[in-house]
Write a structure and sequence with these properties.
alpha+beta
């Protein structure tokens, strides 16, 4: 093995380790990979930097804009209003939910679709009298299944297509994956309708936070208290044994939260603390405070000056593995942590001293709780307001339809039609300039570019050819055996790293295997697109699984129970349908 191949393998193993155990955010890993490959000359400067300007990376950024235009013009509201309804049976409810989600995910980022549907599903589940945990996993799965149907539906599709184009000189059409994707959708919907009994009944974080008296204490400051006129820090009332001060309610109903350390104490102030109830109550005698006559702090009180919101910790957030007391997160963002729920259960103890995990749901208070300020750290759901449908809804739908037709009839390449569609969204005011700026997720683009760069290195250093030779030795001259090995191996590894990374790793291997066997590379290409997106078995297998992890109150094993069954069923469908429609 050459030194450059060894460097590439070390980077690959390091990326798998870091992403599996949340050691570093995905965008930082991508940046490190590009830097190391460039510095060590594993890839040329031109090829390393070309990853950022490659078609799939640019296309992902443009698709963020198009998807945002569709969402802000009211497409989501129209679909929710006319397609969800009130089905009487749970299996029918699953189908009514999964079909529109899958359809939208074929053209819009599945992360965006799931992100916006989470709060809708929470409200819909109450209407149907179904616990959210029975609908959240199907929501995530439907978005992944829908993304299989088009080249732009899933990011891995674009990665695999790019390697196919570089190897063969041929470009795939937008709907090249459609026959196999539709088959997977149909089988996936039917499987979920049958396997829905395996979906767990879990308590949602909303319920865990409802009884605020269980995790907050409210104490009144008498007018003759010795600390009146001092700051909360001078009086020793800011951070106390057993918890911390989350807000002050003044006699005129003014709510101060977060509470700065230099805030003065006034007679009649109501001090609200979060943490261990027993320890907090000991302050009454030591500081001359009295019990409040009634509890005013409530999760249901979202109006007025009190700003309470729930947010889920992102899988690759730098918050994972740390406590709030170790970080300056609260001070920097002007928020205060009230409570934490994990797997649907509120954690007892001091919230600021608890080590955070991916999927934890945080109850936060602050006046600047705007989701765009927390991208890459937290995912907010209750703050999502869906725009009403109107004239812009029709305009954005027409723009999308024209883009699809231009691609289908080969009027222009896919990236050109997408660029025009993105510009049209802005020019027709379906999307404002501010919304356009917020729509592009640069963290995902960095992850994407790093993955493509790693894939190039795997191919250029000869690793792909070596692995392809090993697969051919196992499969002999039978291409079906080699295809089975690649599909099952890629589907397995994607449960622990991002499916984009799995696509970048296996795309050169799959193509080299096909060319070594002298068979149709398109067969391996389409099958790989499907298999790397069969990421149903763990909450870290895909971004959408992570998004529903907290709101559904799930445990890690909940995904494995139903996910491995879905993975196996769909891989069988992929292998049978791909070899039938795109024969060797």
């Amino acid at each position: 093995m050459s030194i450059l191949a060894a460097i590439t393998l070390i980077l690959l193993i390091g990326k798998i380790y870091c992403m599996s155990f949340n050691k570093l955010p995905g965008d930082i890993i991508g940046m490190i990979i590009v830097a190391v490959l460039l510095i060590t000359a594993t890839l040329t400067t031109e090829k390393s930097l070309s990853c950022f300007s490659s078609s799939p990376v640019v296309l992902v950024g443009v698709l963020f804009v198009i998807g945002s235009g569709l969402i802000h013009s009211g497409i989501m509201q129209w679909i929710i209003r006319y397609l969800l309804g009130v089905p009487k049976r749970r299996s029918f409810a699953l189908i009514r939910l999964m079909v529109p989600v899958a359809f939208m995910s074929a053209f819009i980022s599945n992360m965006a679709v799931v992100f916006l549907f989470i709060n809708v599903v929470k409200l819909w589940s109450r209407k149907l009298k179904i616990v959210p945990s029975k609908l959240m996993i199907p929501l995530s799965y439907a978005s992944m299944l829908g993304g299989l149907c088009t080249l732009i539906g899933n990011a891995p599709n674009l990665v695999v297509a790019e390697f196919y184009t570089q190897e063969t000189g041929k470009e795939l059409g937008m709907f090249s994956p459609l026959p196999i994707g539709l088959a997977c959708c149909v089988v996936g919907f039917l499987s979920m309708a049958i396997l829905h009994r395996w979906l767990p009944v879990r308590k949602s974080p909303d319920e865990s936070f409802e009884s605020s008296a269980d995790y907050t204490v409210e104490l009144l400051v008498p007018t003759d208290n010795m600390y009146v006129g001092e700051t909360v820090e001078e009086a020793g009332l800011h951070t106390v044994n057993g918890g911390h001060l989350v807000e002050i309610v003044r006699f005129d109903r003014e709510v101060i939260s977060p509470v700065p350390k230099n805030e003065f104490i006034l007679g009649g102030d109501r001090l609200v603390y979060s943490g261990k109830i027993d320890s907090l109550l000991e302050m009454r005698s030591t500081h001359g405070l009295v019990n409040a006559t009634h509890h005013v702090f409530s999760i249901k009180d979202m109006a007025g000056n009190r700003k309470l919101q729930m947010a889920s910790v992102d899988a690759h957030s730098p918050l994972v593995g740390h406590t709030m007391s170790e970080l300056d997160f609260e001070e920097t963002n002007d928020v205060v942590l009230i409570a934490i729920a994990r797997q649907g259960e509120r954690l007892t103890g001091i919230p600021r001293e608890m080590t955070l995990r991916a999927g934890d749901t945080l109850l936060l208070e602050g006046n600047k709780l705007m989701p765009r300020r927390f991208i890459g750290n937290l995912n907010f759901f209750d703050s999502i307001a869906l725009p009403q449908s109107g004239k812009k809804t029709l305009v954005s739908a027409i723009i999308m339809l024209v883009m699809i037709l231009m691609t289908i009839f080969d009027i222009m390449p896919l990236i050109h039609s997408c660029m025009i569609a993105a510009m049209a969204m802005v020019l027709t005011k379906c999307l404002s300039i501010e919304q356009l700026q917020r729509s592009i997720n640069w963290r995902i683009i960095m992850v994407f570019a790093g993955s493509v760069c790693l894939g190039f290195a795997i191919e250029d250093t000869g690793i792909a050819q070596s692995i392809a030779n090993s697969i051919n030795e196992l499969g002999g001259t039978n291409p079906m055996i080699s295809l089975i090995i690649i599909c099952f191996a890629s589907s397995l590894i994607t449960q622990f790293i991002s499916n984009t990374t799995a696509a970048a790793v296996f795309a050169p291997i799959a193509l080299r295997t096909a060319l070594s066997l002298g068979v149709n590379p398109l067969t391996f290409t389409i099958a790989l697109m499907m298999s790397v997106s069969c990421s149903f078995a763990t909450p870290i297998a895909s971004e959408t699984n992570t998004l529903v992890y907290g709101p559904g109150g799930y445990r890690f094993k909940d995904y494995m129970k139903i996910g491995f069954a879905m993975n196996f069923i769909l891989l069988v469908v992929v292998l049978l349908m791909t070899t039938l429609i795109y024969p060797f």
